[in-house]
Design a protein that fits this description.
heterotrimer, A alpha/beta, B alpha/beta, C mainly alpha, A: alpha/beta, ABC transporter involved in vitamin B12 uptake, BtuC, Rossmann fold, six-stranded mixed sheet, C: mainly alpha, two-stranded antiparallel sheet, 12 helices, 2 strands, ATP-binding (chain B), ATP hydrolysis activity (chain B), ATP binding (chain B), ABC_transporter-like_CS (chain B)
Chain lengths: 573, 230, 286
């Protein structure tokens, strides 16, 4: 099996071909279908674009957005307004303007909800949807009262032609979302949905990730609204109610709209369910009841149609990929450690009455590995949190290469060349190994560079989806990503946790070579003394939040005080 | 029979088993020390006994009742008490309120407070404002108030100075003299073994020693290899 | 202005009671219940149906409606605490969004989408201040909102039931390990908030715009009021509800500001969020 990711030809070619094929199929539908189905199809296209947007914000970035049709109303407003005043450029330009305007409104609405978690966004967006509902009824869209209907572009002016235009716009939106999800932004959406700390530690801004997801989603909503206006000619508030926004959200969750095909499938459901109910003589409102029930089911079980279908498809390879670290790595010359590159002075932090750390000094030598050990609860993870900027209330100085990092956010510290990994799994399952490594590394990487680094740590190949990588291997993929970022210092918080004990020493042999191979100095927190012994030149021992001992490995490990702290009270050792 | 039995239990977390086929019995009035290096799976074992996580294989018995499939609440009603790692106080509740949760009656609260004069002085403070040692004392007192028959204690010394811990340890002995069966997980190995009758050493999820605590203290090599590798 | 503000006070009392319910739910059972007012709406609609079509006396129909609201809420609580016991607040709340949709569309099917022919339970003025009439509904809802907040506070602070609820909300696992039954207590909280929401909506709905969507969307101003108390403090939730109702009433007096009235809850939400998030905090869990 090849370890490399697919080449640029497949990466760009396949989506373009699929888009082209979709447009051709759209044309065939537009000439072949019955007029009524063309009308229904147009409604499905509008819903599809709106669902694509929801897929980005709820599916990828994990936020709850309940006003997708309010953004559609913004798009509709702009298109009918520009039509009313006879703005230059014609329908397609107005459509783009509508999308941009909705995106801007999205940014404005999203800003206040960004710091706290998803549920605040839900409250804000429901508030907006409810307010817009009442307002639109009162003020109406431009041109509605005097009956000025929106002019379609000349070449797509009849219903069949307009349907084809709709398929083209939908296909282009799908293509846009497809490529956006493969950019840094897209990886950021996945990362922020899984862990905000993990996102910041990779040097990506949590704020930008969330805001871009929300803006893209709103812009797609705006395009959907504009397109709807062109379909009907006049925009009516009844097309953009809060109720329908709720239904779209539930549909997005239920179908798994973060997958592009599922967004399109959800759009078909959006139209087909009420239509079928109508044919069977059932009131159409049952459609939303069905969505509500299926949505409740999807949310309580945590699954959705898209992943369920894909699971069936991929049943053959259910085994999780793990780490293969059997062979010892090739020898390299390990240069002696140099001057300190990371210096920490007088670090302290209290949690309430509890002194978690007090007056901690330590230094990581360049080209070296400093081990930090100590009993449980000694403050090791707190130390990493402070150095990497996640505990701004801590006091003391952190200097990287002579430059003070005090007051910088975790994102800024990561960009300045101070990276960290986490004890818990903070690797987003939605990405492939390769995409995640590129996201974390934040620089151009050749495929061979990634493959080489992954092989060195025995990680699964770059194209493996992370959801099929076991926890131990995920943590090493995280380490690889941060190493490829070429930071000055990498803080590793128990990287071996999750690996079988037999592989700890093999990992140690590789960590030992990290400064020589990657040019990165390491601070290693670890409780496996075998591993520490095989990797670290110097060791600092923490006990009750204070430095108990610090110095060369042999000296520290021979210190009876250290043994006492590490093993508990013992006069025997 | 009034013992707690763990039979060949296996606990899985994420990728693989963290505890493999471990079995033992806790007898009334006896303290069993469970020791081993960090990451050996001690916390997972305790959680499987009290029902925080399910056991993948094996069974847990309280007296004659098999409780492997029982809820945490049902196990607690059978007299099992689990003191979690860290300081498991309810931070927004006062000392009195914390105790009242398990004591049920005010006379019992007073009885317990009489044993902890430090807490009596701060009975109306929210526990969030107490020091680490005092918080751990609240947790112990709270467990004591419930008169548990079986008590699992997970690293109550976490983040505490040894001098504070040595103040708390006699309370554990007192639980035992009142008839409770105790499983004590502790990083201060020698202090823990000092108050225990039985000992179990786990390393990488497996039992490497099971027997008398005194014998284990007398053969440091067993412990040494479990902790330091080699 | 004063007349408008006093007219808005009835709505304010309604917001306040719903805000207290939202706060209780968020604190005690980790849910922002978007279906809070929809549950009440549904109970009230059933009551109207029973009195208009089944010929039940208004008071009996209202009691049945209130009990139904409580039962619906309890059922939802049971579902969430069975299948999403360990899930985060976001996932648990998202379920209530689906339920909100479900309840609105069910009521459209069963009762149509027009406002309902409510029989007012309370009618007529209570007293007047400087020529401005204050209705019985206003007096009752305001008194009710304060009474409910005070009552809940006493229940949480003084009884062992409240003590167990607070313990559960702070450390659910620890509380369960001590033998405190999480699920029955959670379902009880759901049931009580369901009862309270239906009760207060039954009182106020006859004198408000009472179509299904408007009543269900009452959760928005209620959330704005609950946010003032940070979804933790009951007293501030009541104050927030009353003030918001009065402000909306006052603004409604001025024709040119009517759109502002619609956006008032939204603006309050945005403002409060901006204020409460001045400092960056890194949540341990994420």
């Amino acid at each position: 099996m090849s370890r490399a990711e697919s080449g640029p030809l497949t990466r760009f070619g396949v989506p373009l071909v699929v888009t082209g094929a979709a447009i051709v199929v759209g044309y065939l539908f537009s000439v072949g279908l019955d007029g009524y189905f063309v009308y229904l199809g147009m409604s499905a296209i509008v819903a599809g674009i709106a669902l694509l947007g929801l897929g980005v914000v709820t599916g990828s970035a994990g936020m709850v957005s309940l006003c997708q049709l309010t953004f559609a109303a913004v798009g509709a407003w702009v298109v009918s307004g520009l039509n009313r005043i006879g703005a230059p450029g014609g329908f397609l330009v107005w459509l783009v303007c509508g999308g941009i305007a909705a995106g801007l409104v999205g940014v404005l609405v999203g800003l206040p909800a960004l710091r706290l978690r998803g549920i605040n966004l839900a409250v804000v967006t429901l508030g907006l949807a409810a307010a817009a509902d009442l307002t639109l009824v009162q003020i109406q869209f431009p041109g509605t009262v005097d009956g000025v209907s929106v002019e379609r572009p000349e070449s797509f002016s009849d219903d069949r032609g307009y349907f084809w235009l709709g398929t083209i716009v939908l296909a282009l939106c799908c293509l846009l979302v497809h490529f956006l999800r493969r950019t840094r932004w897209g990886s950021g959406w996945q990362a922020v949905a899984f862990s905000e700390r993990g996102t910041a530690a990779a040097g990506a801004s949590v704020r930008t990730s969330k805001l871009s997801a929300f803006a893209v989603s709103a812009a797609l909503g705006g395009v959907a609204g504009g397109l709807l206006t062109g379909q009907v000619g006049l925009a009516f508030p009844a097309s953009f109610t809060a109720m329908q926004s709720l239904a779209l959200y539930v549909l997005a969750i239920m179908s798994g709209a973060h997958l592009i095909d599922m967004a399109v499938f959800g759009a078909v459901l959006w139209v087909a369910v009420p239509e079928l109910l109508k044919r069977w003589g059932v009131p159409q409102d049952w459609g939303f009841v069905v969505f509500g029930l299926l949505g409740t089911h999807a949310l309580t079980t945590g699954g959705n149609l898209g992943t369920a279908v894909r699971e069936l498809w991929r049943r053959r390879s259910k085994e999780a990929a793990g780490v293969e670290l059997t062979a010892p790595p090739a020898e390299v010359d390990v240069p002696p450690p140099g001057e300190p590159v990371l210096v920490v002075r007088d670090l302290s932090v209290n949690f309430g009455e509890v002194k978690a750390l007090s007056g901690v000094h330590l230094a990581v030598p360049s080209n070296g590995v400093l081990g930090v050990i100590g009993p449980n609860g000694a403050g090791k993870s707190t130390l990493v949190d402070i150095i990497s900027g996640f505990l701004p209330q801590a006091t003391g100085a952190v200097e990287l290469d002579g430059r003070s990092l005090n007051g910088l956010s975790p994102t800024r510290r990561a960009r300045a060349g101070l990276r960290r990994t986490f004890q818990q799994d903070r690797v987003p399952a939605g990405l492939t190994v390769g995409a995640y490594v590129r996201f974390v590394a934040r620089r151009r990487l050749s495929s061979s560079e990634i493959t080489e680094a992954l092989e060195f740590f025995g990680c699964p190949p770059a194209r493996t989806p992370l959801r099929r990588v076991d926890v131990g291997a995920r943590r090493l993929v995280e380490v690889v990503g941060h190493l490829l970022a070429k930071p000055k210092v990498l803080l590793l918080d128990e990287p071996a946790a999750g690996l079988p004990h037999e592989e700890h020493v093999a990992l140690g042999a590789r960590l030992r070579q990290v400064p020589a191979r990657f040019g990165v100095s390491v601070l290693l927190i670890e409780h496996d003394l075998d591993l520490v012994r095989s990797v670290c030149d110097t060791i600092t021992v923490l006990d009750f939040g204070q430095v108990l001992a610090s110095g060369p490995q042999a000296e520290v490990l021979a210190n009876p005080e250290v043994l006492k702290a590490y093993m508990g009270e013992t006069e025997l050792l | 029979m009034n013992a707690l039995q763990v039979r060949d239990i296996t606990v899985t977390r994420g990728a693989g088993p963290v505890i493999r086929e471990v079995g033992f019995t806790l007898e009334p009035g006896r303290i069993t020390a469970l020791v081993g290096p960090n990451g050996a799976g001690k916390t997972s074992l305790l959680e499987a006994i009290s029902g925080v996580v399910p056991a993948a294989r094996g069974s847990v018995h309280i007296g004659d009742v098999e409780v492997t499939k029982h809820s945490r609440v049902a196990r607690a009603k059978l007299g099992l008490s689990h003191i979690e790692q860290g300081r498991a106080v309810f931070p927004g509740l006062t000392v009195l309120e914390n105790l009242k949760l398990t004591a049920r009656t005010w006379p019992r609260v007073d009885e317990v407070l009489a044993l902890f004069p430090e807490l009596d002085k701060r009975r109306n403070s929210p526990t969030a404002l107490l020091s680490g040692g005092e918080q751990q004392m609240v947790v112990l007192a709270r467990a004591f108030a419930a008169r548990p028959k079986f008590l699992l204690i997970d690293e109550m010394s976490l983040g505490l100075a040894p001098v504070v811990f040595t103040r708390l340890l006699p309370m554990v002995t007192r639980f035992a003299t009142e008839g409770a069966a105790i499983l004590l997980v502790e990083q201060f190995t020698h202090l823990a073994l000092g108050v225990s009758q039985d000992a179990i050493v786990v390393s990488s999820g497996r039992v490497t020693y099971q027997g008398s605590a005194q014998d284990l203290l007398a053969t440091p090599q067993t412990l040494h290899s479990a902790y330091l590798g080699e | 202005m004063l007349q408008g503000a006093l007219a808005g006070l009835a709505a304010g009392g309604l917001y306040a009671v719903l805000a207290v319910c939202l706060t209780l739910m968020s604190r005690l059972v980790r849910v922002v219940n978007f279906a809070q007012s929809a549950t009440g709406m549904f109970g009230c609609y059933v009551a109207v149906y029973l009195s208009v079509h089944a010929g039940l006396p208004t008071w009996a129909a209202t009691v049945v409606g209130i009990l139904l609201g409580g039962a619906l809420s309890a059922l939802l609580g049971w579902i969430i605490s069975t299948w999403l016991a360990e899930a985060d607040i976001g996932t648990r709340s998202a379920v209530t969004v689906a339920v909100l949709l479900l309840l609105i569309s069910l009521s459209f099917i069963l009762f149509g989408n027009k406002p309902q022919p409510f029989h007012p339970i309370l009618d007529g003025p209570a007293f007047s201040v400087n020529g401005v009439v204050v209705s019985q509904v206003t007096v009752v809802t305001v008194v009710l909102s304060v009474a409910i907040a005070v009552g809940c506070r006493a229940l949480l602070g003084r009884t062992s039931f409240g003590l167990e609820l607070r313990a559960l909300s702070e450390r659910p696992t620890t509380a369960e390990l001590m033998g405190i039954p999480a699920k029955p207590l959670a379902v009880a909280v759901w049931a009580v908030t369901g009862l309270l929401s239906t009760l207060v909506i039954s009182i106020v709905a006859p004198s408000q715009s009472n179509d299904a969507t408007s009543l269900s969307m009452l959760v928005v101003p209620a959330a704005a009021a609950a946010l003032l108390g940070g979804f933790r403090r009951l007293d501030l939730a009541v104050v927030g509800g009353l003030v918001l109702g009065m402000a909306q009433g006052a603004v409604a007096q001025v024709d040119s500001l009517s759109v502002v009235r619609y956006f008032l809850p939204f603006l309050v939400i945005v403002g409060l969020l901006l204020w409460s998030q001045r400092k960056e905090v890194w949540d341990v869990a994420r």
